[in-house]
Amino acid sequence: MLAVGLVYVGLIAALVGGISLVKPLALVGIQSRLQGTFILALGLLIAGVGWAFPAKEVRVAVLRTQLDQFVPVYQFNEAHSMRVMAPKDRVYRAIKEVTADEILFFRTLTWVQRLGRPGPESILNPPERLPLLEVATRTSFLLLAEEADREIVVGTVVVAPRGWRPKKSPTAEDFKAIREPGFAIAAMNFLIEDAGPGACTVTTETRVYAIDVPVRRGFARYWRVIYPGSALIRRMWLRAVKRRAEASVL
């Protein structure tokens, strides 16, 4: 989070400084183009520090979930939880049935992430009315594990060496076996746990493991830019699950 904060503070400062090269922004205390130049340079420096910040490697000590089984070591992750007033089976069904259009800001943020390009059907460009997880697992993601009323895990390769092509029918074991330099793998889960009578807690966590240092550095720059939007999507995804699950109880 520190690295992400540095990147965004730096980018905002650089933007303010860049604008002040054209017209100094007196409202924020910039009185001259020279000050704007200084703010621009300082912002770029701060953002550069954020991008260069080393990514800490985390190792799971106790394998508790299916996600732990597939990505027990990672450098990048985000996790979000939400309490849902519905039984586990309804929540599980809601996770599998939620569509992109039920997730606030999903299409806007994914449009930005793919730079406005239409592209093929994928989790970043899903068709209407189809469950988002179904779209994911029939395009770029692989269903790694499914434990009814408890956990779903999907995974994908996010960085691969030039010229690499996946198998026509990859398996969960193939995903586990990816440990060669040049790769970065990502997995995301939805985990349902009891939270009292008629309630449960739903957690979604995304982990990325970059196999070698060059890939890790390159992915760190990308991750630290997209993190706020990615985190917002996952929070809104959980809210969509909550709405659907709780509506089915009424």
Question: What would your notes on this structure say?
Answer:
There is one protein chain. This protein is an alpha+beta fold and 250 residues long. Helix content is 46%, strand content 20%. The chain has 8 helices and 7 strands; from the N terminus they run H-H-E-H-E-E-H-H-H-E-E-H-E-E-H. The protein has helices spanning 2-22, 33-52, 66-70, 88-97, 106-113, 132-138, 172-177, 213-249; strands at 58-59, 73-74, 76-84, 142-147, 151-159, 184-194, 200-210. The strands form 2 sheets. It has a 5-stranded antiparallel β-sheet with strand order 3-7-6-5-4. Strands 1-2 form a two-stranded antiparallel ribbon. Helix 1 (2-22) packs antiparallel against helix 2. The longest helix has 37 residues, at 213-249. The two termini are 39 Å apart. The model has no long low-confidence stretch (mean pLDDT 92).
Name of the CATH architecture of the largest domain: 2-Layer Sandwich
Name the strands of the widest sheet in spatial order.
Answer: 3-7-6-5-4
Radius of gyration: 21 Å
Low-confidence stretches: none
**Average pLDDT for all residues:** 92
Distance between the termini: 39 Å
By CATH, the topology of the largest domain is Alpha-D-Glucose-1,6-Bisphosphate, Chain A, domain 4
Derived structural class: alpha+beta
Encode the helix/strand succession as letters: HHEHEEHHHEEHEEH
Number of helices: 8
- What global shape is seen? globular
* Oligomeric state as shown: single chain
Helix content: 40-55%
Query: What is the CATH top level name of the largest domain?
Result: Alpha Beta
Number of strands: 7
Q: How much strand content do the residues show?
A: 15-25%
Q: What is the total number of structural domains? A: 2
Largest sheet, in brief, is: 5 strands, antiparallel
